[in-house]
Amino acid sequence: MTSIEQIAASLEGYDPQAMSSTQVTAFLQRLVQPVQERETVALHDALGRVLAADVVSPVSVPPHDNSAMDGYAFDGGALRPGQSLRLRVVGTALAGAAWRGSVQSGECVRIMTGAVMPEGLDTVVPQEFTQADGEHIHIAPDLLRAGDNRRLAGEDLMQGAGALAAGERITPAAIGLLASLGMAQVQVLRRLRVAYFSTGDEILSLGEPPREGAVYDSNRYTLFGLLTRLGVEAIDLGVVRDDPALLRDAFARAAAQADAVITSGGVSVGEADHTRSMMRELGDVAFWRIAMRPGRPMAVGRIPRDKIWVKNGSSAYAESASSSFIRSNIFPNEALLFGLPGNPVAVMVTFLAFVRPALLRMMGCTQATPPLLRARSSEAIRKKAGRTEYQRGLVGVGADGQLEVRVTGNQGSGVLSSMVRANGLIVLPHASGNVAAGEMVDVMVFDGVI
Ligand SMILES: Nc1nc2c(c(=O)[nH]1)N[C@H]1C(S)=C(S)[C@@H](COP(=O)(O)OP(=O)(O)OC[C@H]3O[C@@H](n4cnc5c(N)ncnc54)[C@H](O)[C@@H]3O)O[C@H]1N2
Ligand code: MOO
Do you know which Gene3D superfamilies this protein is assigned to (predicted)? Predict the structure, then answer.
C-alpha cells in the first residue's frame, strides 16, 4: 500500500515543515474514501444520515390538482376584464372528500385548501374576496386570473423524477420530502465510528481535584460536541497519561473500534511527549507544521487494527489476532489518525478546517465543505501573509443592512471564551496580509456546521 509520506510527497511542493492548508485538504482528498456498507433505517432514525442511493419519486406530489385556498372553485375562462362574476354554489369539495358532481357554466363549488379540484375547474377565489348572496357568490372585477390558487399535480415532484441524490445528508426538509413520497424507510450508509482521547500529564479529568500545573480536559468535550453534531458515533476513550504502555493500549483500542481516531496534544516538539513516538511506532504517520493559525502542528496517518495489542501481565504487551475489531471497507486494516494540537481552539479549528470535511467524505457526503459567507470587517485585522488565519468572529447585520463581522477578542489558541462568543470563523487566506476596516472577508458560520 502507498505510504502516507508517499501520498503526501505527490503534492506539489511538499514540505512537511511548511504545509499550506490547501495542501492538507488536497492530501486528505486523496487519502479518504467513503464507506460502502448500507443499512435500511426508519425515517425517524434517518436524520443526519447520508443517502446510500438516489431516491426516485414513486408518486407525484401532490397527487392531484388541488386548491391552495379556502374559497370557491370555478372555470377561470369565465373571467372578463373589468367585469364582476356571479356564480351559483352547487356543492362542496373538502380535503379528503372530492366533489364528484358536474358543474355547468355560471356555477362554482365551495372548496377547502388541499381539496381535489373538481373536473373542469381551474381557478379558486379565496372566500374573503367574495360576497355571498343566497345560493350565489359575487367576485369583484379584476381580482383574479385564470389558474390562480390551484396547485398542480406533481408541481413538487413528478412520479419518476429524482427526489434526492445519493450522498445527500438527510435534513429535516429531506425527511419531510421522503415522508411525502410515502416512504417509511430509507437506505443510508452506515454510521461512521470515531474514537477520541486526550493526552498529557497535565490534563485533569472532570471530577479530579485541581492540582498545580494541571488543567481540566476541555478538548474531549469540544470534540464530543463537534462529532455528535456531525452525526457520527463518537467513542470517548478518556484522558491518557503520557506513558508509552497506556498510549499503546489507547491507540490499539481506538483503532480496533473506529474508522478514525482523533487525539489532542503531544504533536508538537515537546520533550516529555510519548504521543508522537507512539504514533510513529504503531502507525504510518506524517508530522506536519501547517502554515495556519491556530493549529500549526498536526499529525495525520493510519493506525493498523489487524493486530490488537493485549495486555500481558502488568506492563508487557503482546500482539494477538482479534476477532472483535471492526472490518471497515474504508481502510480494511487500519484507522485514519488525526493527531490534533493540544491547544483548545487549535483543536476546534483543525477539526473544522480538515477533520470535518474528511469525515464527511468518509461518511459518503458529496457536500463536504461549508459555504463561506462574505461579510464586511468592521475593524482592521492584523494578518501575516504566508499562513491561513482563522479568527473568531461575530457576524451580524450592520447599520446599513449589510453583513458585518467583528473579531470576538483575545485570539490566543488556548482561549475558548472568544470562541464561545463567536458565531463563525473569519477565514483569511494564505496569501493575504492585513485586513483594513471595511474590507470584505470570508466567514465560515457555525450555524449549520457546528
Ligand atoms: N517550540 C515550539 N513550541 C510549540 C510549537 C512549535 O511549533 N514549536 N507549536 C505551538 C503550537 S502552535 C501548539 S498548538 C502547541 C501544540 O502542542 P501539542 O500538540 O504538543 O500540545 P500540548 O503541548 O500537549 O498542549 C498544548 C496546550 O494545550 C493544552 N491542552 C492540551 N490538551 C488539552 C485538553 N485536553 N484540554 C485542555 N487543554 C489542553 C496544554 O495544557 C497546553 O497548554 O505547541 C506549541 N508549542
Ligand atoms: O496550533 Mo497552536 O494553535 O496555534 O497554539
Answer: MoaB/Mog-like domain, MoeA, C-terminal, domain IV, Molybdopterin biosynthesis moea protein, domain 2, Molybdopterin biosynthesis moea protein, domain 3
